[in-house]
Amino acid sequence: MFQSTDTDGRLYPANPSIRYDGPIVAADGWYAIQRVASQTFVAHSVQALDDSPQVGAVVSIHHGHIIAPERQETRGMNKKRKPTP
Q: Is the pLDDT of residue 60 over 90?
């Protein structure tokens, strides 16, 4: 599946304890492949995810949870800050 995506780079198995951000470039019944850097991709087991990501969607995946950018938490490093006057 990765070879058919017309992308150059390295493909690694996803570590569920690491948070990955980026677009889904390919998906089938077994794996979802996510671009996490310009030449780096990770393969998530679809069975370990709480939902099936759509190809082209830009998401965060962490501990099997798929979070769309508009639903990301507003605390910690993702906290949206108010502009200073």
A: yes
